[in-house]
Amino acid sequence: MFATGDKTMAIYDYLISYGQFDSLVSFNGQLKDYLNIYANEKNRKLLEMMLEENENLYVYTNFGLKFNMALIANKQIGYKDAKKIDDNSLKVPYIIYWKNEDLQRALVINTNSYIEAKGMFFSLTEVDNYFEDDKNDLIAVYLNQDNRDEVIEVFKEMLNGKHATVSIQRKLDNKYINDVDLMKEQCIKISQDIFEETIETILPLESGERKPYIDKAIARAFILKKALYVRYMSNKHLLNERHFGKVSQQRIFAKSYISEIPIVPYFKLFNM
Protein backbone atom coordinates (compact mmCIF):
# COMPACT_ATOMS: atom_id res chain seq x y z
CA MET A 1 0.00 0.00 0.00
CA PHE A 2 1.42 3.35 -0.98
CA ALA A 3 0.67 6.90 0.11
CA THR A 4 -1.28 9.24 -2.08
CA GLY A 5 0.62 12.34 -1.00
CA ASP A 6 4.08 13.32 -2.15
CA LYS A 7 7.26 13.01 -0.09
CA THR A 8 7.55 16.76 0.49
CA MET A 9 4.56 16.61 2.84
CA ALA A 10 5.19 16.97 6.56
CA ILE A 11 5.43 13.65 8.36
CA TYR A 12 1.95 13.56 9.96
CA ASP A 13 0.30 14.69 6.73
CA TYR A 14 2.21 12.05 4.79
CA LEU A 15 1.29 9.17 7.08
CA ILE A 16 -2.35 10.19 7.37
CA SER A 17 -2.54 10.42 3.58
CA TYR A 18 -2.49 6.62 3.44
CA GLY A 19 -5.98 6.76 4.91
CA GLN A 20 -7.08 5.08 8.09
CA PHE A 21 -7.34 1.31 7.73
CA ASP A 22 -7.14 -2.00 9.55
CA SER A 23 -5.95 -4.85 7.34
CA LEU A 24 -5.23 -7.28 10.23
CA VAL A 25 -1.60 -7.21 9.06
CA SER A 26 -1.22 -3.45 9.34
CA PHE A 27 -3.17 -0.66 11.02
CA ASN A 28 -3.16 3.09 10.49
CA GLY A 29 -5.35 5.30 12.62
CA GLN A 30 -5.90 6.69 16.08
CA LEU A 31 -3.97 4.88 18.78
CA LYS A 32 -7.00 4.66 21.07
CA ASP A 33 -8.94 2.88 18.31
CA TYR A 34 -6.05 0.49 17.78
CA LEU A 35 -6.00 -0.45 21.47
CA ASN A 36 -9.77 -0.93 21.49
CA ILE A 37 -9.51 -3.35 18.56
CA TYR A 38 -6.37 -5.23 19.65
CA ALA A 39 -6.95 -6.07 23.30
CA ASN A 40 -3.97 -8.44 23.38
CA GLU A 41 -1.41 -5.99 21.97
CA LYS A 42 1.86 -7.08 23.60
CA ASN A 43 3.09 -3.51 24.19
CA ARG A 44 -0.29 -2.30 25.38
CA LYS A 45 1.04 -0.82 28.64
CA LEU A 46 3.57 1.35 26.83
CA LEU A 47 1.02 2.58 24.31
CA GLU A 48 -1.48 3.35 27.07
CA MET A 49 1.18 5.39 28.86
CA MET A 50 1.72 7.37 25.66
CA LEU A 51 -2.03 8.01 25.36
CA GLU A 52 -2.05 9.37 28.89
CA GLU A 53 0.40 12.03 27.73
CA ASN A 54 -1.46 12.86 24.50
CA GLU A 55 -4.85 11.40 23.58
CA ASN A 56 -4.58 12.53 19.95
CA LEU A 57 -1.91 10.06 18.88
CA TYR A 58 -1.94 7.99 15.72
CA VAL A 59 -0.18 4.70 15.06
CA TYR A 60 0.93 2.97 11.88
CA THR A 61 1.86 -0.65 12.55
CA ASN A 62 4.04 -2.80 10.28
CA PHE A 63 4.94 0.05 7.96
CA GLY A 64 6.69 -1.47 4.94
CA LEU A 65 10.30 -0.42 4.39
CA LYS A 66 11.93 0.05 1.00
CA PHE A 67 15.48 0.91 -0.03
CA ASN A 68 16.70 3.31 -2.70
CA MET A 69 19.38 1.09 -4.19
CA ALA A 70 20.29 3.76 -6.77
CA LEU A 71 21.84 5.88 -4.02
CA ILE A 72 25.63 6.19 -4.09
CA ALA A 73 25.80 5.41 -0.36
CA ASN A 74 23.76 2.23 -0.83
CA LYS A 75 25.96 1.20 -3.73
CA GLN A 76 29.01 1.75 -1.52
CA ILE A 77 27.57 -0.74 0.96
CA GLY A 78 27.91 -3.31 -1.82
CA TYR A 79 25.25 -5.78 -0.66
CA LYS A 80 23.94 -6.90 -4.05
CA ASP A 81 21.40 -9.33 -2.64
CA ALA A 82 19.47 -6.35 -1.26
CA LYS A 83 18.50 -5.54 -4.87
CA LYS A 84 16.77 -8.91 -5.19
CA ILE A 85 14.30 -8.57 -2.36
CA ASP A 86 10.78 -7.20 -2.55
CA ASP A 87 9.86 -3.79 -1.18
CA ASN A 88 8.18 -3.99 2.23
CA SER A 89 10.01 -7.23 3.13
CA LEU A 90 10.93 -5.58 6.41
CA LYS A 91 8.37 -3.75 8.53
CA VAL A 92 8.67 -0.93 11.03
CA PRO A 93 6.71 -2.40 13.98
CA TYR A 94 5.26 0.93 15.12
CA ILE A 95 5.31 4.53 13.98
CA ILE A 96 3.61 6.73 16.59
CA TYR A 97 2.79 10.10 15.07
CA TRP A 98 0.99 13.31 15.93
CA LYS A 99 0.71 17.00 15.22
CA ASN A 100 0.58 19.88 17.65
CA GLU A 101 0.01 23.39 16.37
CA ASP A 102 2.77 23.89 13.80
CA LEU A 103 4.76 20.76 14.74
CA GLN A 104 4.47 17.28 13.29
CA ARG A 105 6.43 14.45 14.88
CA ALA A 106 6.88 10.68 14.65
CA LEU A 107 8.50 8.05 16.83
CA VAL A 108 9.84 5.02 14.94
CA ILE A 109 9.97 1.93 17.16
CA ASN A 110 12.10 -1.12 16.38
CA THR A 111 11.93 -4.20 18.60
CA ASN A 112 15.12 -6.00 17.51
CA SER A 113 18.06 -3.72 18.34
CA TYR A 114 19.04 -0.07 18.49
CA ILE A 115 21.37 -0.55 15.53
CA GLU A 116 18.45 -1.78 13.44
CA ALA A 117 16.38 1.18 14.63
CA LYS A 118 19.12 3.45 13.29
CA GLY A 119 19.26 1.52 10.04
CA MET A 120 15.53 2.02 9.64
CA PHE A 121 15.92 5.72 10.38
CA PHE A 122 18.65 6.11 7.75
CA SER A 123 16.57 4.21 5.19
CA LEU A 124 13.33 6.09 5.88
CA THR A 125 15.08 9.45 5.56
CA GLU A 126 17.40 8.73 2.63
CA VAL A 127 17.08 10.58 -0.69
CA ASP A 128 13.86 9.80 -2.58
CA ASN A 129 12.46 7.78 0.28
CA TYR A 130 9.45 8.32 2.53
CA PHE A 131 10.77 10.94 4.95
CA GLU A 132 13.65 12.53 3.07
CA ASP A 133 12.59 16.01 4.20
CA ASP A 134 11.56 15.01 7.73
CA LYS A 135 14.86 14.00 9.35
CA ASN A 136 14.35 16.54 12.11
CA ASP A 137 10.79 15.45 12.84
CA LEU A 138 11.29 11.83 13.81
CA ILE A 139 13.31 9.78 16.26
CA ALA A 140 14.13 6.07 16.12
CA VAL A 141 14.13 4.01 19.31
CA TYR A 142 14.67 0.40 20.31
CA LEU A 143 12.01 -1.15 22.53
CA ASN A 144 12.63 -4.26 24.61
CA GLN A 145 11.17 -5.76 27.77
CA ASP A 146 13.47 -3.75 30.04
CA ASN A 147 13.60 -0.23 28.59
CA ARG A 148 9.96 0.87 28.43
CA ASP A 149 10.72 3.78 30.77
CA GLU A 150 13.45 5.02 28.43
CA VAL A 151 11.10 4.97 25.43
CA ILE A 152 8.46 6.88 27.39
CA GLU A 153 11.01 9.49 28.43
CA VAL A 154 12.08 9.98 24.81
CA PHE A 155 8.44 10.32 23.83
CA LYS A 156 7.82 12.91 26.58
CA GLU A 157 10.85 14.90 25.46
CA MET A 158 9.50 14.95 21.93
CA LEU A 159 6.12 16.13 23.19
CA ASN A 160 7.39 19.00 25.31
CA GLY A 161 9.54 20.32 22.47
CA LYS A 162 12.24 21.74 24.75
CA HIS A 163 14.99 19.82 22.98
CA ALA A 164 15.58 19.34 19.27
CA THR A 165 14.93 15.82 18.03
CA VAL A 166 18.53 15.70 16.79
CA SER A 167 19.86 16.20 20.32
CA ILE A 168 17.50 13.56 21.73
CA GLN A 169 18.62 11.06 19.08
CA ARG A 170 22.26 11.93 19.69
CA LYS A 171 21.86 11.09 23.37
CA LEU A 172 20.56 7.64 22.39
CA ASP A 173 23.40 7.22 19.89
CA ASN A 174 25.92 8.01 22.60
CA LYS A 175 24.39 5.38 24.85
CA TYR A 176 24.08 2.55 22.32
CA ILE A 177 26.54 3.11 19.46
CA ASN A 178 29.11 5.61 20.71
CA ASP A 179 32.04 3.25 20.04
CA VAL A 180 31.90 2.41 16.34
CA ASP A 181 34.34 -0.50 16.69
CA LEU A 182 32.13 -2.05 19.35
CA MET A 183 29.14 -1.33 17.11
CA LYS A 184 30.77 -3.40 14.39
CA GLU A 185 31.17 -6.35 16.74
CA GLN A 186 27.52 -6.04 17.72
CA CYS A 187 26.52 -5.97 14.03
CA ILE A 188 28.49 -9.16 13.41
CA LYS A 189 26.72 -10.95 16.28
CA ILE A 190 23.25 -9.72 15.27
CA SER A 191 23.76 -10.72 11.64
CA GLN A 192 24.98 -14.18 12.65
CA ASP A 193 21.85 -14.61 14.77
CA ILE A 194 19.58 -13.37 11.96
CA PHE A 195 20.84 -15.92 9.45
CA GLU A 196 21.03 -18.78 11.94
CA GLU A 197 17.40 -18.19 12.94
CA THR A 198 16.33 -17.81 9.30
CA ILE A 199 18.03 -21.04 8.24
CA GLU A 200 16.36 -22.89 11.10
CA THR A 201 13.00 -21.51 9.92
CA ILE A 202 13.37 -22.22 6.20
CA LEU A 203 15.02 -25.65 6.21
CA PRO A 204 11.70 -27.53 6.61
CA LEU A 205 10.12 -25.39 3.87
CA GLU A 206 9.96 -25.92 0.13
CA SER A 207 12.02 -23.49 -1.94
CA GLY A 208 8.92 -21.62 -3.09
CA GLU A 209 7.84 -20.94 0.50
CA ARG A 210 11.13 -19.46 1.64
CA LYS A 211 11.19 -16.05 -0.03
CA PRO A 212 9.44 -13.93 2.66
CA TYR A 213 11.81 -15.20 5.35
CA ILE A 214 14.90 -14.83 3.16
CA ASP A 215 13.93 -11.32 2.04
CA LYS A 216 13.39 -10.23 5.63
CA ALA A 217 16.77 -11.60 6.73
CA ILE A 218 18.56 -9.82 3.89
CA ALA A 219 16.72 -6.57 4.63
CA ARG A 220 17.74 -6.78 8.29
CA ALA A 221 21.36 -7.45 7.36
CA PHE A 222 21.25 -4.54 4.92
CA ILE A 223 20.08 -2.04 7.55
CA LEU A 224 22.82 -3.27 9.88
CA LYS A 225 25.38 -2.56 7.17
CA LYS A 226 23.77 0.77 6.38
CA ALA A 227 23.72 1.87 10.02
CA LEU A 228 27.39 0.96 10.48
CA TYR A 229 28.46 2.55 7.19
CA VAL A 230 26.69 5.85 7.85
CA ARG A 231 27.86 5.92 11.46
CA TYR A 232 31.46 5.32 10.41
CA MET A 233 31.40 7.87 7.59
CA SER A 234 29.88 10.55 9.82
CA ASN A 235 32.53 10.15 12.52
CA LYS A 236 34.83 13.17 12.20
CA HIS A 237 37.13 11.93 14.94
CA LEU A 238 37.88 8.78 12.95
CA LEU A 239 38.27 10.83 9.78
CA ASN A 240 40.99 12.92 11.38
CA GLU A 241 42.66 10.44 13.72
CA ARG A 242 42.44 7.21 11.73
CA HIS A 243 42.36 8.54 8.17
CA PHE A 244 44.33 11.79 8.45
CA GLY A 245 41.45 13.89 7.14
CA LYS A 246 41.17 11.91 3.87
CA VAL A 247 37.51 11.16 3.14
CA SER A 248 38.43 8.82 0.29
CA GLN A 249 40.51 6.71 2.67
CA GLN A 250 37.70 6.72 5.23
CA ARG A 251 35.25 5.54 2.56
CA ILE A 252 37.51 2.68 1.44
CA PHE A 253 37.98 1.59 5.05
CA ALA A 254 34.24 1.83 5.76
CA LYS A 255 33.45 -0.49 2.83
CA SER A 256 35.98 -3.00 4.11
CA TYR A 257 34.69 -2.52 7.65
CA ILE A 258 31.08 -3.41 6.86
CA SER A 259 32.18 -6.38 4.73
CA GLU A 260 33.06 -8.06 8.03
CA ILE A 261 29.35 -8.34 8.82
CA PRO A 262 28.61 -11.96 7.82
CA ILE A 263 25.85 -12.82 5.36
CA VAL A 264 24.53 -15.97 3.72
CA PRO A 265 24.05 -15.51 -0.05
CA TYR A 266 20.53 -15.30 -1.45
CA PHE A 267 20.91 -18.30 -3.77
CA LYS A 268 22.38 -20.44 -1.01
CA LEU A 269 19.42 -19.77 1.28
CA PHE A 270 17.05 -20.97 -1.44
CA ASN A 271 19.05 -24.06 -2.29
CA MET A 272 20.21 -25.39 1.05
Sheet with the most strands, sense and barrel status: 6 strands, mixed
Helix content: 40-55%
Number of helices: 12
Low-confidence segments: 1-5
Structural class per helix/strand content? alpha+beta
C-alpha termini separation = 32 Å
How many E strands?
6
Strand order of the largest sheet: 1-2-3-4-5-6
Broad shape: globular
**Number of domain units:** 2
What percent of residues are in strands? 5-15%
- The Rg value, from CA coordinates, equals 19 Å
The chain-level mean pLDDT equals: 93
Secondary-structure element order, as H and E? Answer: HEEHHEHEEHEHHHHHHH
Structure description:
With 272 residues, the chain is of the alpha+beta class. It has two domains: 11-176, no CATH class; 180-271. Helix content is 50%, strand content 14%. A six-stranded mixed β-sheet has the order 1-2-3-4-5-6, with helices on both faces. Strand 1 and strand 2 (27-30) form a beta hairpin. The chain is globular and about 50 Å long. The two termini are 32 Å apart.
